[in-house]
């Protein structure tokens, strides 16, 4: 078994098809299929289910994918680890940021990291907080800035700030100025994420504690789809960000802080089982400083720094 067998297998599973994987890694598709065939022959078991719609790992393939992902990650990090021990920090760091703040902060965060760590290669992703945490558990991300509610032991975390939730509407509500009561929110048609998303958990808990029943007319597990539904006039939403000008400029009314307050915690998280590399720790320290500087300079209500 050779390293390229594992690397190619990981790419095929991530891409979901041989053709997409071949295009990403610049290898001819027949040669890629041959390499995966050799890996299956060496292990003596089928690793992929093939169909006209693409490929998906078998039960054995899932196990190999998890192990191969960690092996590939460690081998890719090795040159940077060795060079960092005798000079400037080098290496590859995969980090993510929740889509709720990525539109405003992702670019400046990457710029801050590149300025402080010019020899570190950054691979950036954005997405839902729950998805980013799942990717850290799967070891396809090293660290991520996420919103969370309950802290679980399999993550190493650095809490950054608390964020109040807002009501987001397409049109301004004439009777509200800056805030809205939870009782008023319960009367509005709402588009929310499904359970067990962190944001939905805290929203449901707030309504339950107030003995209110929300009028949920639709659910979507994609934040951008949720905002798109609000933008189309389907309903309103309860979101953990105060502005969407970087995503849909001018599409929404001024967001309203909900009373009594509903909070999520923004944290920088990494795996609790696998320590960060030297480059990963360096990026983590830069991101902590960057995020705290951004929040300290933010005059918008709804955020509270955590010391």
What this model shows, in words?
The chain is α/β, with parallel strands linked by helices. The chain contains 10 helices and 14 strands. The protein has helices at 3-15, 18-25, 29-43, 59-84, 99-116, 129-137, 182-186, 198-209, 223-231, 278-296, and strands spanning 48-51, 54-57, 91-98, 120-127, 143-148, 155-164, 166-168, 179-181, 189-192, 215-219, 237-239, 256-259, 263-271, 303-305. The strands form 4 sheets. The chain has a 6-stranded mixed sheet, sandwiched between helices. A 4-stranded mixed sheet has the order 8-12-7-11. The chain has a two-stranded antiparallel sheet with strand order 1-2. A hairpin with a 2-residue loop joins β1 (48-51) and β2 (54-57). α1 packs across α4 (59-84). The longest helix is centred in the first third of the chain and has 26 residues, at 59-84. It starts with a helix and ends with a strand. The model has no long low-confidence stretch (mean pLDDT 86).
How are the SSEs placed, and which strands pair?
Blueprint: H1 3-15, H2 18-25, H3 29-43, E1 48-51, E2 54-57, H4 59-84, E3 91-98, H5 99-116, E4 120-127, H6 129-137, E5 143-148, E6 155-164, E7 166-168, E8 179-181, H7 182-186, E9 189-192, H8 198-209, E10 215-219, H9 223-231, E11 237-239, E12 256-259, E13 263-271, H10 278-296, E14 303-305
Parallel strand pairs: 3-4, 3-5, 8-12, 9-10
Antiparallel strand pairs: 1-2, 5-13, 6-13, 6-14, 7-11, 7-12
Helix pairs in contact: 1-2, 1-3, 1-4, 5-10
